What we know:
The complex is a heterodimer of chains A (298) and B (500).
Chain A: H1 5-32, H2 43-97, H3 104-125, E1 128-129, E2 132-133, E3 161-165, E4 168-171, H4 190-203, H5 210-260, H6 264-288, H7 293-296
Antiparallel strand pairs in A: 1-2, 3-4
Helix pairs in contact in A: 1-6, 2-3, 2-5, 3-4, 4-5
Chain B: H1 6-30, E1 40-46, E2 68-75, H2 79-109, H3 117-133, H4 138-197, H5 205-221, E3 224-229, E4 242-248, E5 255-261, E6 266-267, E7 270-275, E8 280-286, E9 291-292, H6 300-337, E10 350-351, H7 371-374, E11 376-377, H8 379-383, H9 400-407, H10 416-456, H11 460-494
Antiparallel strand pairs in B: 1-2, 3-4, 4-5, 5-6, 7-8, 8-9, 10-11
Helix pairs in contact in B: 1-11, 2-4, 2-5, 2-6, 2-10, 3-4, 3-9, 4-5, 4-6, 6-9, 6-10
Pfam families (chain A): Flagellin_C, Flagellin_N
Main location (chain A): other
Family (chain A): Belongs to the bacterial flagellin family.
Amino acid sequence: MRVTQSMLSNNMLRHISQGYERMAKTQEQLSTGKKISRPSDDPVVAMKGMSYRTNLTEVEQYKRNLSEAYNWMENSDAALDKATSVMQRIRELTVQASNGTLEDSQRQIISKEIGQLKEHLVSIANTQVAGKYIFNGNDTTTQPVDFSKPNPVSQNGNPVKIELSKGIDIAINVNPKTIFTYTSGSTDSGLFGDIMELEKALNSTNPSDIDSFIGKLDKNLEKLVSERAELGARYNRVELIDARVSEQEVIANRILSENEDADIERVITDLKMQETVQRAALGVGARIIQPSLMDFLR
Amino acid sequence: MRSTFHGLETARRGMFTQQTALQVTGNNISNANTPGYSRQRVNFEQTEPYPAAAMNRPNIPGQMGTGVKAGSIQRVREGFLDVQFRTENNKLGYWGAKAEGLEKMEDIMNEPSDNGLSKTLDRFWQSLQDLAVNPEDSGARSVVRQRGIAVAETFNYLSNSLYTIKKDMESQIDITKLEVNSLTTQINNINKQISEIEPHGYLPNDLYDERDMLVDRLSELVNIKVTSEPSSDDPSPMAAGKYTIELISGDGTQSLGKLVDGAALAKSDVNYNIDSTTGKLTKFTLGAPPSDITTLKVGGRLSGLTDSFNNTYPTMLNDLDKLAKGFAVKFNEVHSNGYSLTNTTNIDFFALEIPGAVSEEITSTTPIAGFASRLTIHDDIKNKIENIAAGLTTSDGDGDNAQLLSDVKNDSDVKLKTTYEGMIGRMAVESQEAVRLMDNSNVLKSAVDSRRQSISGVSLDEEMTNMIQFQHAYNASARNITVIDEMLDKIINGMGVGGR
């Protein structure tokens, strides 16, 4: 093949610009840290990248939902713990009051304390977390216990559910219908009703059946404890989900990274190699543009 | 008997002819860097020997050479390589245009990234999850509204940008068409000039070069076949003649008509039709009155642009419309089942204004063309975030419907994510193929080009060698005159002077 000088210089130019093109790609990979910059670079990586990103977003969101679930459940548990102590104190006072040797005035003092404890129970039932009433089912903007209303204790027992993992909705609230209750009648009942009747009995001059309240209080206390146990069991489940979601987050991050992150060591090695080739190409270029026959003909 | 001065004439011819050769060498060197230039060569020919074979020829030893002449000046070129070059150039034109269109599309879709539609949908989903957790929170509602607007705007942006590029492609088709017509006009003009020069026995090499270069450029735009018509009854065997250029279908099987008619020295213009209702290029025509080329496959860049304009872009636009509509209709359906904070139900989240039927409800039967570009948030939601129907009951703390709304992303009827991923995947594969084939034809084209250069390119070393060769021949002819001069001097001045 006949080779002319313009062919040589054209080839040289082409090779050098091809080298720069490859280096530009490497530069892009190094400065973005990504294997690909457009879908056509690798359609499979691009498509997988899209769904892995979605997975990651989902997992991140579930983590966010989890922290909200913890917030509700821990606050509910703490409130129920307080409610239990209050109930125990009321029971203690009731046992004390059932002692027939007490005078009226002493019973009245006990009644006063029970009145205060009842107020405390009301404030526990009205616990707010981040502005939301946690003991009113999904009607979180209404105060559940308000004795100025005709029906002082609201009866919304709807679960407040949060999605904590794909398709898994968990109720994060306790059912207040079983614990904070009040039924008005000839003798009021339910938690608040019982306490109110107890107050009344203690204030009367001749109480005969204070003893009977101990049984009623025990029943309410039992409901409280069992609701709390149920909450505890659910909390455990949430912890299990949390562990799994955390694991998924790590996996999702790793897969996303494996899929589209540039292998920096390799890219740098490539860069080094391209540098060598480019130097060679430039060197060859400089050498190949040689003096021609003209320079020797005088 | 030959003439006394015969030798002078022979040597003079030598000097003249070598001078011509040196002239051509100089021209080659001067044009070493001229694009499209083919090196030229002087075809040396011996002049008629003496005596000529005839009845009254002198009875002398014969025949004796009478010198040299420059028979012709010819381009050194291989026509077969031109055919190869133009085939590859045509493919490069086609795949180049396709790759370019798809590259722009990839830029617009911008996937995978943190700014594409996919991420915008993910963020919207995320805001709905937050709303499900905090349905009574106006902050969470604002975020849902903003992210919803972002989804609608991303659909709008994608659709509008693709439409703009499609519009741009139309003007590129127009420019390319004009370029084809301008090139064929120029080729036809050169054909005319050539037809006036060749019958006189000349070889208009510069016109040949110029014409071949125009044909090279034309081959990138459309698929062509070049044949040659003699420009006179008895042309020089080296004459290239007048080119007839046929338009060939992209697959090379069918002739679609003559762009340039060498015999008639006429040319026909390429034109096209765009159907205003479908927005598609329906046909190319040739000549006036236009004869329908019937097929859209004219090859080259023009075909690549037409493909993008007629198929690639409309398909993506249509897919986006379908996707946006499927999503919006389903989302509205779920949304209207829920209760807002003000305990109203049957509220739409997304709105669409259909031309001619403003404020018409979006249903699964309304037309979808341009849906993605018109998708917006319904005024009810835009003006009042309380209207976002997060609950399935009237309780403020009920986020169950927000939960259901977040599930629309993965709804089995809409298949939002998988459909969109499929669209991007298809585009990516198509683009990858176009880029690969463009690179391939580029490599082949430069391989053929370098073989063409190998034959037609000017080598300065070679020209220098020739120059020395011609210079020496010139000098030798001149020296021959000196010798003959001395001989004549002997005859005229040195002879018959004995005894003087």
